[in-house]
């Protein structure tokens, strides 16, 4: 006759079942997609048009920074761009007729001086041979004649340069200067526009780290927004069930404080493991690796849930 099984075996089986169910879940928190709007310049905050927790539409003004310095820099760069454009136009137009006429007159004057110096040297040569003048005076006359000829050649080259017009390399340099000046002006214009902080998407203003009159450094977040149609569950998947979790898989999300679970879908799971965080410890899982995952909520009633709530995710096989 067989003995009846002890109730101890039944309790042990239930405990093992509970542990098995517990290992098939992932813990984490409810999160929203966040957008940080950085400060484009170190300017003082002169106006704040929203408050924390306020829902805003895309394109709504959030924060206004002081415009004076950036506006002055934009005006200066625009003036430099116009100046570079005028220099380029002058290069493209080439020398004026008056400059060419002046160069021809300078050449004629140099030729006249050269002819006079050459004639004087010719008169001094026989006098030097007859020793009526010193050799030094003859040498001075020869040097003056040669110098006058050099001036003639210089005047000829100057006239030729004007007649041939502007070199193509000079025009290319002028075009590069204009492009650079316009680019700098465009950068200042964009910076000026960004001083009026606009919401890029519809969402909720989660945080305004700075107050009216503060001067935030460049890159510091002036406003942080929560965007998206619904929050998502940011959970840590234990290593034993990682092989059974995939992107697109359905899941049930249990939110702390709600009786009914929400439906979700895995939208991301990391391939690199990390240690289980302190708030997701489940018995032996404390010593195991886990994988960060994101589960988006597909139900319409999830849009009003705040971030930071603890969640428990059960993945559908």
From TrEMBL:
Record localization: Cell envelope
Regions annotated as coiled coil: 100-165
- Outline the extent of the YbhG-like alpha-helical hairpin domain: 71-192
Cite the PROSITE patterns for this sequence.
PROKAR_LIPOPROTEIN (PS51257)
Q: Which UniProt keywords apply?
A: Coiled coil
Please provide an example of a Pfam family that matches this protein in its UniProt record: HH_YBHG
Protein name according to UniProt: HlyD family secretion protein
Native organism is Lysobacter niastensis
């Amino acid at each position: 006759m067989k003995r009846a099984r002890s109730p101890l075996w039944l309790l042990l089986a239930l405990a093992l079942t509970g542990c098995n169910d517990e290992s098939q879940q992932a813990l984490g928190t409810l999160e929203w997609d966040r957008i940080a709007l950085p400060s484009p310049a170190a300017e003082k905050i002169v106006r704040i048009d929203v408050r924390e927790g306020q829902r805003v539409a895309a394109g709504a003004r959030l924060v206004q920074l002081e415009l004076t310095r950036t506006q002055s820099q934009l005006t200066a760069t625009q003036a430099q761009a116009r100046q570079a454009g005028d220099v380029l136009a002058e290069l493209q137009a080439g020398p004026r007729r008056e400059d060419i006429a002046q160069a021809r007159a300078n050449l004629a004057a140099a030729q006249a001086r050269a002819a006079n110096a050459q004639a004087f040297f010719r008169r001094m040569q026989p006098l030097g041979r007859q020793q009526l003048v010193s050799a030094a005076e003859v040498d001075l006359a020869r040097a003056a004649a040669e110098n006058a000829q050099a001036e003639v050649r210089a005047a000829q080259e100057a006239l030729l340069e004007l007649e041939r017009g502007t070199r193509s390399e000079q025009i290319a340099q002028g075009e590069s200067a204009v492009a650079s000046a316009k680019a700098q002006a465009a950068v200042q214009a964009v910076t000026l526009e960004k001083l009026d902080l606009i919401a890029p998407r519809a969402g909720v203003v989660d945080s305004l780290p700075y107050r009216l009159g503060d001067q935030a450094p460049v890159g510091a977040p002036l406003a942080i927004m929560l965007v998206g149609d619904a929050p998502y569950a940011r959970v840590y998947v234990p290593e034993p069930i990682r092989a059974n979790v995939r992107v697109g898989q359905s899941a049930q999300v249990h939110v702390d404080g709600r009786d009914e679970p929400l439906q979700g879908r895995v939208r991301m799971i990391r391939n690199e493991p990390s240690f289980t965080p302190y708030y997701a410890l489940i018995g032996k899982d404390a010593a195991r690796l886990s994988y960060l995952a994101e589960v988006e909520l597909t139900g319409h009633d999830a849009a009003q849930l705040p971030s930071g709530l603890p969640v428990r995710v059960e993945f559908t096989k």
